[in-house]
Amino acid sequence: MIQATTILACSGGLAIAHQRFLTPTNRPQHDVMDNSRYQISEPATELVRRTAIIAQSLPAEWLKEFDNSILFLATHYSKTLNASIIEATKRSVRLELMHWAHQTIKNPTKFPEPLITADAEEIAKEVTSLNIPEIFIEISRLHQNTAIKLCINTIFQEKCSQEIANEAITFLLKSINYYFDNSVNKLTNIIHKEKLSATHSKKDAKYNLIKNLLDNRFVDANIASRELNYNINSTHQCGIAWAPKDKVQLTELEKMTIKIITKISTAQSIFIPMEHDTIVFWLNLKNPITAQQLSKVPHHYPARLVLGPLGQGPDGFRRSYQDALTTQRILTQFNAKTKFATYYDTQLIEAFAHNMDFTKEFINTTLGKLLAAPPELQKSLYIFLREGCNLTKSASILGIHRNTLLTRIDRATSLLPTDLNEHRIQISVALHALVAPEIFITA
Fold this sequence. Notes:
By secondary structure, the chain is an alpha+beta fold. It has helices at residues 4-22, 42-56, 60-76, 83-106, 118-129, 134-156, 162-214, 221-228, 250-264, 291-294, 313-333, 343-353, 356-367, 375-386, 391-398, 402-414, 424-439; strands spanning 235-242, 269-274, 278-284, 304-312, 340-342. It has three domains: 4-197, no CATH class; 231-350, 2-Layer Sandwich (Alpha-Beta Plaits); 355-442, Orthogonal Bundle (Arc Repressor Mutant, subunit A), CATH 1.10.10.2840. It is built from 17 helices and five strands. Strands 2-3-1-4-5 form a five-stranded mixed β-sheet, sandwiched between helices. Strand 2 (269-274) and strand 3 (278-284) form a beta hairpin. It holds the Pfam family HTH_30. This is Purine catabolism regulatory protein.
């Protein structure tokens, strides 16, 4: 039998194993030791082989120790670890133990590569779906500790010198640690892939749910609100951001759009990538984001961005999106230079766009010679009328002096075929149709 000093040495090795269980959950790959042959003496090699033969036979007391370790965690996670996971874990442990033992018997001086069983993969995926992947890592570490303890206890029963026992124990510690470290690394990769897959699945489900809402298919608003974490029954404003692929990738555009919009408004929101390099978002708002708020978006933002009007409930969710699409189409159709616009900026343009012949005739007869005047005259008069003839505010928007604006207004009104005071509405509408597609809120 092994003397007391040997038992102390073995206890030190077991303490190391306990420390390994308590601290790391996924050791980095570079910490996993080399599996090249380990130099040990023939007597120690034979002792390792005999220990592996005992392990391969799956002694009842060994299985009881492993099962107890599983039940210990099952009690701790009683709300999440169901009976099927527990039974699958027991099966997996038995197969892995037999695999380690079999490989060690064949090559007693080489660290065995781990076996990732079908059960182990399914358990890893299941606990990931339950959002508790750390359980599987804990199970692996607990089994690692149990295997070390059982192997050491087996060597305690052997009649050998203290030196041989220590040599065999040192090898077994390294072999078991190598096996479980590699196993944990491989399972961590499986869990990581499963998380990525789950993320994509959630995004697909989210996209399909929104698509059904937009297509006016039957969707329970309360269920949709819960799934999207967004109140469909509330008041919405939809926005659309888009940019060519050569300017920015869609994922980066999504991050930038979320960052910018959440700075403008802290309201509950939902963002989703759509086709054609587009990000669509909705905000739960009582008051809409204004053109002035949009004008504060940083100049380095690479996309164009439009906003629909406020809408109430599922119908408003759809309508705000459709009107945002209309605004996007108007900007594109008229080759507008502006990057940002709201539906209210383009609403009149949309009405005119249905009858272009009438629109051209209306603009010609209403504006007369002003139609051929320098653009700054048209723009200045348009802003002046849009701002309720507020000279100070208009000059500030245009970035010019009040006197300069007065001069431009005088020149512009002198070119009109009718009196401005008598036909202010018609002139405002004509200038809006002429000028707005080019300037919108950048005026």
